Amino acid sequence: MKYADLLSLYELPLFELLKQAREVHEKHWSENEVQLCTLLSIKTGGCSEDCSYCAQSARYKSGVDSERLMEKCDIMKRAEAARDSGSTRFCMGAAWRGVRSGTKRFDQVLEIIEDVSELGMEVCVTLGELGPDEAKALKDAGVTAYNHNIDTSPEHYPNIVTTHTFEDRLNTIRNVQDAGMSVCCGGILGLGETYVDRLKMLEVVSEFNPQPESVPINRLMPMPGTPLEGNNPVDIFDVVRMIAIARISIPGAKVRLSAGRTHFTEEGQALCFFAGANSIFYGDKLLTAKNPAVEKDQNLLSKLGLTSQKPNRNLEAPEAHPEKPLQPACSDCE
Ligand code: SAM
Ligand code: DTB
Ligand code: SF4
Predict the structure, then answer these.
(1) Domains and CATH numbers, the chain
(2) Whose CA is nearest to atom 4 of ligand 3?
(3) What mean pLDDT is reported for the chain?
(4) How far is CA 298 from CA 84, 216, 295, 306, 317, in A?
(5) Which residues contact 179 (CB under 8 A, 6 or more apart)?
(6) How far is CA 115 from the centre of its chain?
(7) What are 234-247's pLDDT values in tens digits?
């Protein structure tokens, strides 16, 4: 959806926007279901990149130590526990700039994915930058979806990260699509961006062809020691507004209410679900930051009459729109 149309949605009175988002939501997601995803940091800290929101960058004194890649058997135990607690998607994150075929650590990750994918959950990974070969190898190993966020608008991105570019992010997303994996791509609210940046971020994500299978909306969790530790929290109504606009502009995607829920009230979260959020991270830890306890989330979902979505291991990457051009891999290709 183009910026002008997103802006028209943004300018609506909140209840009118919610009404429109709800209509789209009911048409595409009539089941009152929420997907429960468990996140596990399989390689924490020590990252070469300088993303100014991230506690895992080696450049900041955030108190997050650099750890080695977790052992496969430990990951399997966590994946089995996630499945047993009702999660239908298991997302593994690594604090790397990216991965390269032919390296020991990439081979180890492929082995881990092969085993996790036997458990019957959707498998999502977020490992940073990928080339075409790496993307294909991940798909063959059993990855359902690859998470790679653009995080903010192309214009604001260089204010947040300097060690890689917005175009680098788009190239990886193109490689993921070409390999036939689903794309999970969203961003963070609270990076000092304007509402224009937020809408431009949604313009880029909603104009992907095919559109992403899932769209995480994170509210910045200000991490001590990072450059953004003192940022003001984004108002919950602004979060709700972005979820509603994401729902309308990317109707078939799971919109994931991601980082930041520990600071939201139950009423705030209920409004996010009403606006079109239909997926959450489930389990008391995100990568390094806190997430609500499982019992608390179960209680909230039950109070709202929401149930958990079944896994869809045969999930196909969304089809590209035949009459629209594929988005260019980077601006050099336009
Ligand atoms: N290194 C990989 C990458 O950059 O894509 C994967 C891990 S990275 C931590 C995954 C995503 O987590 C980021 O793109 C960002 O959207 C989100 N994230 C990281 N730190 C956050 C924070 N403090 N608050 C909210 N979201 C955060
Ligand atoms: C996403 O968009 N949010 C998740 C997941 N993808 C990998 C990560 C949130 C990280 C929050 C900060 C932390 O735990 O360090
Ligand atoms: Fe590294 Fe990813 Fe954190 Fe950036 S967001 S510092 S690439 S782990």
Answers:
(1) 3-300 (3.20.20.70)
(2) 51
(3) 95
(4) 14, 20, 5, 9, 29
(5) 132, 135, 136, 138, 139
(6) 23
(7) 999 999 999 999 99
